[in-house]
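Figure 3 (text version): C-alpha cells given as input.
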C-alpha cells in the first residue's frame, strides 16, 4: 500500500504528525483555515464600517446608497467568520479550486452567506443586495496584511508568550531558591571564580525578560489603501471622503493594529522582520540555556529524575539521557533558520509587488511551531532536574586554587597602601597555584607568609571556594 493512499492523510512534517498535540494551539491562529477566517473578519468589518461609518464622520454611511446596517445585520455578518468550520472550509476550497485565488474565494464565500441572509434573519434584508460592498476598493493585500498581522499577534499573545513566560517564571523561582547555593564556575572549561547556581540561572532570566519585553511592545502594522497604496480606487468611486482617515480608523480601531500610512501594494513587513528577529534572539538564548544545562547534567551538577517506564538506551539500561534539552536545541535551531529566512525575505519586494512574501508567510506557523515545540521540551526538561549538592560541594573542595584571585587582588591593594613584600602579586600567586593541586593548608600557609594587616589576613583566611561568591545571591534580585 502507498502511504499517500491512507486516509486521513499522513502528516508530512513532525509538527502536524508526531508532535501534533504540542503544536495544535497554533492551528487556531496560523493555519490556512485560521487565515481565511481572519480574512472574513476583515472583510465583514470593512463592510460594516463602510455602511455605518465611524465617530469621526458622525456614524454616517461612507458609501452612498448603502443604509446603515441594523444590529441584527451586523451580528449576522460577524457570525460568518465565527461559524467558519469544516463545512465552510470545504466550501471555500471549492471556490478556490475554480478561482485559483484564495482571497477571491473568501469574497465568494461571503457572497454565499449573503444569499442566505434573509432566511437566517427571518425576513427581507439589504444584505442580500450588498455583494458589491464585499471587498470594496480593496486589493488582496489590503485583506491579507491585516489578516496576517492579526493571526501572528494572536499566536504570539495566546501561545508563544505564555510558553516562554512559563520557562522564565520557573527559572526565576529556581534562581531565588538556589541563590545561596555555591557552584564552581568554569571559564574556558577550567575552574574559575565560584558563583551560585541561583545567580547563573538569574542571568538567563534577565536575558530572556529583555527579549520578552521587546515582543510585548512590538507593533503590528497594517494598511488598507488600495492596489499601490494611493487610495486611487477609493477616490474614483466616492469622492469627498477622507479615505486616509477612514483607513487609519479602520486599522487602529477595528483591527487593533498600528496604522502604516505609506506602503506599496503590500505592507512592508518591517514589523515582521523585527518580531522574528527578536524571537530568533530569544530562541538562541534558550539554546544557550539548553547547552549549559546539558553540560551541567553531564558534569553531575544537575541530576535527572528518571521517568518510570522510559528507556534511555536500547542497549545500555542504566542511561537517563537529557533528551528534552537535546530536542529543544534541535527545534530552536530549525525555528531560528526559518525565522531568519522570514525576516530577510519579507522586507524586500520588487517595485510595488511580487509574491515572494505570500509564499514565505505560509511558513510562519512552522517557524513559530518549532519554537513552541522547543519551549515545551525545555520546560519539561527543567522540571525534571534538581541540583546535586554533593557533586557541587566536592568540586568546590577540590579546587582551592580558585582563591588565587582574591589573594592576589588583596596583595595589589596592600601594595598600593604601602605594605612591604606585596610586589609582583599576580606572579607570586601564579607560581604557587597554576598547574598545582592546592589544599586549604597551602592557601593558609601562603597567606601567613605575606605581611598582610591582621584584618585582611583574617578576612582571606575565612574564605573557602564555597564562600567566595561575592554578592552573587544579591544579584539574583536584578532578574526582576
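Below: residues designed for each position.
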Amino acid at each position: 500500500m502507498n502511504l499517500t493512499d491512507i486516509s486521513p492523510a499522513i502528516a508530512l512534517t513532525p509538527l502536524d504528525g508526531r508532535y501534533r498535540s504540542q503544536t495544535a494551539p497554533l492551528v487556531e491562529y496560523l493555519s490556512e483555515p485560521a487565515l481565511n477566517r481572519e480574512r472574513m473578519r476583515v472583510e465583514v468589518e470593512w463592510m460594516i464600517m463602510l455602511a455605518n461609518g465611524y465617530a469621526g464622520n458622525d456614524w454616517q454611511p461612507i458609501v452612498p446608497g448603502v443604509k446603515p446596517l441594523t444590529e441584527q445585520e451586523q451580528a449576522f455578518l460577524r457570525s460568518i467568520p465565527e461559524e467558519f468550520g469544516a463545512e465552510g472550509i470545504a466550501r471555500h476550497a471549492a471556490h478556490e479550486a475554480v478561482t485559483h485565488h484564495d482571497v477571491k474565494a473568501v469574497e465568494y464565500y461571503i457572497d454565499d452567506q449573503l444569499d442566505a441572509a434573509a432566511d437566517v434573519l427571518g425576513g427581507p434584508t439589504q444584505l442580500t443586495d450588498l455583494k458589491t460592498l464585499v471587498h470594496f476598493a480593496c486589493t488582496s493585500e489590503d485583506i491579507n496584511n491585516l489578516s496576517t498581522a492579526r493571526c501572528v499577534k494572536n499566536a504570539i499573545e495566546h501561545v508563544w508568550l505564555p510558553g516562554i513566560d512559563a520557562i522564565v517564571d520557573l527559572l526565576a523561582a529556581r534562581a531565588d531558591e538556589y541563590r545561596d547555593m555555591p557552584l564552581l564556575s568554569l571559564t574556558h572549561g577550567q575552574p574559575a571564580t565560584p558563583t551560585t547556581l541561583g545567580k547563573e540561572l538569574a542571568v538567563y532570566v534577565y536575558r530572556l525578560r529583555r527579549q520578552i519585553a521587546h515582543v510585548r511592545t512590538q507593533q503590528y502594522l497594517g494598511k488598507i489603501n488600495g492596489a499601490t497604496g494611493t487610495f486611487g480606487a477609493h477616490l474614483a468611486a466616492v469622492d469627498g471622503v477622507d479615505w486616509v482617515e477612514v483607513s487609519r480608523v479602520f486599522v487602529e480601531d477595528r483591527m487593533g493594529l498600528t496604522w502604516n500610512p505609506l506602503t506599496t501594494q503590500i505592507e512592508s513587513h518591517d514589523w515582521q522582520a523585527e518580531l522574528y528577529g527578536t524571537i530568533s534572539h530569544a530562541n538562541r538564548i534558550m539554546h544557550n540555556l539548553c547547552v549549559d544545562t546539558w553540560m551541567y547534567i553531564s558534569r553531575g551538577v544537575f541530576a535527572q529524575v528518571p521517568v518510570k517506564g522510559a528507556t534511555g538506551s536500547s542497549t545500555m539500561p542504566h542511561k537517563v539521557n537529557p533528551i528534552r534539552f537535546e530536542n529543544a536545541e534541535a527545534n530552536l535551531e530549525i525555528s531560528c533558520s526559518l525565522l531568519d529566512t522570514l525576516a530577510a525575505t519579507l522586507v524586500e519586494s520588487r517595485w510595488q509587488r511580487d509574491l515572494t512574501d505570500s509564499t514565505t508567510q505560509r511558513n510562519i506557523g512552522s517557524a513559530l511551531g518549532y519554537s513552541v515545540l522547543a519551549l515545551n521540551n525545555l520546560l519539561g526538561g527543567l522540571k525534571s532536574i534538581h541540583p546535586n549538592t554533593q557533586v557541587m560541594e566536592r568540586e568546590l573542595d577540590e579546587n582551592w586554587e580558585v582563591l588565587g584571585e582574591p589573594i592576589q587582588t588583596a596583595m595589589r591593594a596592600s601594595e598600593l597602601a604601602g605594605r612591604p613584600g606585596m610586589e609582583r602579586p599576580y606572579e607570586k600567586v601564579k607560581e604557587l597555584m597554576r598547574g598545582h593541586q592546592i589544599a586549604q593548608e597551602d592557601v593558609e600557609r601562603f597567606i601567613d607568609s605575606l605581611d598582610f594587616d591582621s584584618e585582611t589576613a583574617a578576612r582571606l583566611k575565612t574564605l573557602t571556594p564555597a564562600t567566595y561568591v561575592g554578592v552573587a545571591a544579591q544579584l539574583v534580585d536584578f532578574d526582576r
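DSSP finds 21 helices and six strands in the chain.
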